[in-house]
Task: structure prediction
Amino acid sequence: MKFLPLDSEDQKLIEAAREVLRRNYRPIRHTVGAAVLCSSGRIYTGINIEACGYSPCAEPIAIGAAFAHGERDILAIVAVCKRGNEYPVLSPCGNCRQLLVDYAPEAMVIFNDNGKILKTQARNLLPGAYITDFDDG
Ligand SMILES: [Zn+2]
Result:
């Protein structure tokens, strides 16, 4: 698995995720922010939505926002949480890893590996992944 160090574009994406969480943080309800960079150069953000029974993560909300604006190619994604006044980078959960493999296997995922912030392609974070056949025709 190839892990890469972050560059200034990655820092910009992390800052976008932090900013959306700063603006919308609500204990329990909205505790994670995510940002995606698309091939257009635009960044889209999202927050998690905690609810009874179904609680979408911030990543699918951000990806959905990008797709709703006509984007199709996600180049990079990151999610952050809030710990006091800090907004540390998170690792995507298993569901989000599958989502990324389905929709953006080449996208760079910025993630937290025991306190070390790295990036790698989404497909590297889910070895032996189930490959969804969308049969788009
Ligand atoms: Zn998730």
